[in-house]
């Protein structure tokens, strides 16, 4: 099969690799119908995630069809269309029993495209299938559903829920990439008084406005705007969705006393924590890796057309155009890319491997 293989910082290629095999009774093999590229994949290519070894297939989000299932899998069977979650969950460890699947200590957590081969391929092996894939109705567009593999659960759980957004709040979202935009969308479920979107790119600020932001600002304008809107108090909730020291420190300056700062961004460099300013302000800072415990809820909302996931997709490609898709996504400031989706035309049949996959 073909897959995108990481060869070290700044190096990757779409190349032939062996087909994945069932290794454990809880595995499934999924033929990929749609994948997307995450900002975390760019961090990996930049060398910010040293756990990823050269030779690893990248990607941790996909929609596809089960073509083979291990003997212990009960929730899906060959032929089922499924969402492949970015988080795998053993279901037995302490963290999984608390629904903190991102911290799974039984061999799961964020492993796809990180510690094991991932989804940016024609086929992918998914461990712990009963808790790590979700059946999808045939009516749901795979290019839309794939956005629930990572960015919507991440924005909702790590941003909105960790930030404790409540009715009447002023919410500032710093970074209007796909996750920041998903945070703007899902924060509205809690009826905040206003949402302020902050970014450097005009095209992303325009997208934020379309998706429900009440005010927009560049980084240099954000502090004054939030102060003006809140009578100098500061935002009740600030969501960091960039992953840079500058963005984190801006968030810390904008949050009000007693407020919440939710860090969603993936940081590759140290950020200063100015306790000399924060120690007396009763500020709660939450970090986190997504657990995807909210995925069933978000899927119901998507099926009922209550989640505008398709609004985030700006570019589509075939799987074989992986290099072009990475280039477009990596130059988002120039190309206007929000979320790119790659897929293959639907197949007429589902085949179980008996020496080779159709």
Automatic annotation (TrEMBL):
Domain Enoyl reductase (ER): from-to ranges: 8-342
UniProt entry tagged with the keyword Phosphoprotein: no
Keyword set, alphabetical order: Metal-binding, Oxidoreductase, Zinc
Cofactor(s) named in the record: Zn(2+)
TM spans (from-to): none
Pfam families the record matches: ADH_N (PF08240), ADH_zinc_N (PF00107)
GO molecular function: oxidoreductase activity; zinc ion binding
Family: Belongs to the zinc-containing alcohol dehydrogenase family.
The name this protein goes by in its record: Alcohol dehydrogenase
Source organism (scientific name): Actinacidiphila cocklensis
